[in-house]
Amino acid sequence: MTVTPRVVVLAGGVGGAxxxxxxxxxxxxxxEAPATIVVNTGDDLWLTGIRLQxxxxxxxxxxxxxxxxxxxxxxxxxxxxxxxxxxxxxxGWPWFTLGDLDLGTHLARTGWLREGLTPSQVVAxxxxxxxLGATLLPMTDAExxxxxxxxxxxxxxxxxxxxRHRATLEPIAFENPGVDAATPAPGVVEAIRGADVxxxxxxxxxxxxxxxLAVPGIREALRATDARVVGVSPIIGGRVVRGMADVxxxxxxxxxxxxxxxxxxxxxxxDGLLDAWLLAEEDAASASAVEALGIRPxxxxxxxxxxxxxxxxxxxxxxx
Length: 320
Description:
Layout: E1 7-11, H1 13-30, E2 35-39, E3 45-47, E4 50-52, H2 54-64, H3 81-88, H4 100-114, H5 119-127, E5 134-138, E6 147-150, E7 155-157, H6 158-164, E8 171-175, H7 188-193, E9 197-200, H8 209-214, H9 218-224, E10 228-232, E11 235-236, E12 239-240, H10 245-251, H11 258-265, E13 276-280, H12 287-292, E14 296-300, H13 307-319
Parallel strand pairs: 1-2, 1-9, 2-5, 9-10, 10-13, 13-14
Antiparallel strand pairs: 3-4, 6-7, 6-8, 11-12
Helix pairs in contact: 1-2, 1-13, 4-5
């Protein structure tokens, strides 16, 4: 009789979406149950009266096979007629483009929220449209956005700092107002406690994984679970793979290196989170530093250049 491991993934952003695809493929090839993916909702926002969940939608669209892989966000083959019409009225953010198909998702979400559904119920409703091969759970049903405090003391929503300013304004802190009063979404803690494996995707440690871990109860569940907790480095060859994660890491005093991020998460044996850490072949020299933290280093290829590479990486994480 084959034992079916229960796999939980913590993820956000494009890296999380690609890794989630790899996990789905690896589990399917093993004949095992689909993963539960706990998704960051710290970059959610209200814009022109509708609720946006960028990380949820990135992973939703990727698993559905309708994501725009060239831009890294939104739906493939989308148009922007409504966006330009909204801009003609002087509404919204001209630098934050929403495609017409994408807006369909946001309108459905907003309508359900205004009818009284929770974000968890909304994510489940959106997921029913496609055979995703995974269960998506938001990290919390509370509204917990991410704000960036820049050098002059101004506070910006993360999306404005990231998309409009391209992280060029020096950050001194990242805040998640309301997170201390938030609770994990239904099913999140139960999934972690009941898992055999928990994988931390190679997402931005500060603004994608950080908000998930900041929700009271999630970090504690990770420390208490009998599952092995395996992280995947978002750093390859001492550089970030995508985006401006290095700016985020520097702001919180974390070295932009595979061993630096491993130390940031910490070893479970030392009140941290990780049992094992996947680091790139380019960073093999850092394996001893990771091991010294009390975390088992596993050196593997980390570039998710195509579906096969993403699946191989997920397989390595599951094996670890």
